[in-house]
Design brief:
The chain has helices spanning 3-10, 29-53, 60-85, 91-109, 114-131, 134-145. With 146 residues, it is an all-alpha fold. Keywords: Membrane, Transmembrane, Transmembrane helix.
Length: 146
C-alpha cells in the first residue's frame, strides 16, 4: 500500500481507484450499491420479457425489443456504477440522468403498482442523495482537479 492509501484507510475511505490519486469515500457505497441493484433488476426484467416472449405469439417481437432495451440500460447503469466508484467524471451525471428517468417512471406507475413506484422512487432518491453527500462531492472535486 502507498502512503496515500494508508491515509485513505485511516480516514475511512477505500484505497485509491485507478486513474487518479483520490480515494473513494465510503459514502460512495450507497449510490454504487443501489445502482448495482437497479442494474440487476433491469437484467431480471429483461429475462422475464424473454421468457414471456416464448409464449406471447404476436407480441414476442415487442417483448424481445424491450428485453434488448433493458439490457442496454443495465449495461449503462452498471458502467455508471463502476465509473462512479472510480470517480470518473462522466459517471456521476450519467447516473443522475438515469435516476431522473427512474423518478419519472415511478410517478407514471405509482397509480397502477404502488410498491413498484415507491421502490423506484426510493432507490432513485437514495442514489441522488448519495451523490450529493459532502464526502462524495469533495472526492469528485478533488478527482476533477487531479
Amino acid at each position: 500500500m502507498t502512503a496515500r492509501n494508508d491515509r485513505a484507510a485511516a480516514s475511512g475511505a477505500t484505497p485509491e481507484p485507478e486513474g487518479h490519486g483520490v480515494p473513494t469515500p465510503r459514502a460512495m457505497l450507497v449510490p454504487v450499491t443501489v445502482l448495482g441493484i437497479q442494474a440487476l433488476a433491469l437484467v431480471g426484467s429483461a429475462v422475464s420479457f424473454i421468457i414471456t416472449a416464448i409464449t406471447a405469439g404476436p407480441l414476442a417481437a415487442s417483448l424481445i425489443g424491450l428485453a434488448v432495451m433493458f439490457l442496454i440500460f443495465a449495461a449503462g447503469v452498471g458502467a455508471a456504477a463502476r465509473g462512479a466508484w472510480r470517480l470518473h467524471r462522466w459517471a456521476r451525471p450519467a447516473a443522475i440522468a438515469f435516476e431522473l428517468l427512474v423518478i419519472v417512471f415511478a410517478f407514471s406507475v405509482i397509480g397502477g403498482s404502488l410498491w413498484l413506484g415507491l421502490a423506484c422512487l426510493v432507490t432513485a432518491i437514495a442514489v441522488l442523495l448519495g451523490f450529493f453527500l459532502p464526502a462524495v462531492v469533495d472526492a469528485y472535486n478533488r478527482a476533477l482537479t487531479d
